[in-house]
Every structure is written in structure tokens, then in C-alpha cells.
Amino acid sequence: MHKTKDQLHELIKDIKTKEEFNKEIIRIQKEYDELLDKDTAALLIVDELGRNKQNISKITELEPGMECTLFGEITNMTQARNFNRQNGSIGRVINLELTDDTGTCGLALWDKDVELVKNKEIEIGTKIKVINGYVKDGFKGIEINVGRWGLMDIEPSDMPELKKQNEENMIMGTLIEIEPTRAFFKDDGEFGFVTNIKLQTNEKINKITVWGEKVKEIQKLKPGDRIEIENVNIKQSNGKEELHINNKGVFRKL
Fold it and tell me: Within 13 Å and on the Cβ side, how many CA atoms surround 51?
């Protein structure tokens, strides 16, 4: 649950008086063209002072319905798109991929935040701290939304070092099933392709989702083949681990 500005002031009352705090809130609201309400501006002040007491989450810990503060790196992004709201106004959204040292999830930016990508303030490789993001179950698994009570800190000073685990993951086993290919519309209106395969390893049968050009590559293999897959992308959905192969993935027949 979000805290009010008065509750947030309790966290820094030894640093700033209430009068100083309120003046700082007004300054930040003007700096953000009045797009932040007082509670959100207060949260930004508290976080900058290192007094945001909310625990830092890892992507593997995320579940739909929770609020979270976490660090990550942008590892992929789609094209921004427009949509019609129920009140007749036009909205904008862009879907990014956020990765930490435990996995990958989606990050949806809305309206004014889309400009951060357009202006190249956020690019692939940009480090981000999401503060009070809202977690939901998206089309491709767990997705974080930066809504009314959320904030983003781009290239934060307190960013921890992240292990590049998603580019190092490898899985080996026997291919036991290739499901029929399915088509879908991407955010930019183009067609995309996806399929699922099942791979028997020594431990279990793994279901793996294969995307894009890699769908064509997997058709060159057949059930019974022993294969090795590099750069397996780990995502989280409803607290469960999912395996995905995107354009960075590599198939090798053994």
C-alpha cells in the first residue's frame, strides 16, 4: 500500500522539518509540470534521501497484485503504440523487457513516460530502479507497470552490480515434442510467430516457448534429437519459472 506524504515525512523528520518537506514537495511538483501528486513527490524525496523502507525485490519474487521496488537493466523493447481510452482520449504505451540477476519480466511505460524512450533517455542497456511499481500478469508473463504511485530512477546511484545470467543460461536434453506454430500480432501491427517445445533433461521435462526467427530454426529439428540450447531466457509468471528462446538463443544438435 502507498504511504501518504505525512506518513513519509515520519521517515525523514530528523533530516527535514515538515515545512521544509512541504516546500520541497512543491518544488518537485513544479519540476515535473504538476504531473506528480503530493504523495508521489514526497516518495521521491524520501527515496533520494535513502529512507525508502520498502524492501528491494528480485524478479523471481514478483507475483501479480503486489507492489515492488527493484533494480534492473533494459534488455529489449517494442515500438510505442497508441490506443483509444474509454473516455475517447488517445493513450500511448511501450513494452520493455527488464532483467536482473534472477530473471526477466515486462515493464510497461504509459503516456508521458513513453517520451523517455523516444528521447533516448531509456535505451537497451539502461539501468533502472522502479519504485512502487505495480505487478500484473501480462501477455508474456509477469509485467510491472509504473502507475500513479510508481516512479522510475534512471541510472540510479545505488544500482547494484547485476550478473548477466540470461546470456549464460544453457540447457541440454532430448527434444520430445514441437507444437504447431501460432501467429500473433505484434505491438507494431506486424505478424509474429511462436511455438512451444518440450525438452527432456536428466531432471524433468521442460516446456520452452520459442519466438520469432527461432521458430523457423526449430523446424529443422525433430523429436528424438539431442540438442543444446544457449541463451535461455528465464521469466516469471505467477511465481513459476518460464523458459523462452528469443533471437539471442542458439540451437545445436548433438
Answer: 16
Strands 205-211 and 191-200: antiparallel
Q: Domains plus CATH for the chain?
A: 5-48 (no CATH), 59-165 (2.40.50.140), 169-253 (2.40.50.140)
Q: Is the pTM of this model over 0.70?
A: no
Judge contact between 29 and 96, C-beta under 8 A: no
- Cell readout for 67 is 507492489
**b/e sequence 32-51, b meaning 16+ C-beta within 10 Å:** eeeebebbbbbbbbbbeeee
Whole-number Å distance between alpha carbons of 205 and 190: 33
CA 156 – CA 97 distance, rounded (Å): 18
User: Cα separations (Å) of 200 from 16, 172, 224, 228?
Assistant: 59, 8, 10, 11
CA distance 54 to 131: 9
Lowest mean pLDDT across 126-130, 215-219, 232-236 = 232-236
pLDDT at 193: 83
Cα(141)–Cα(176) distance, integer angstroms: 24
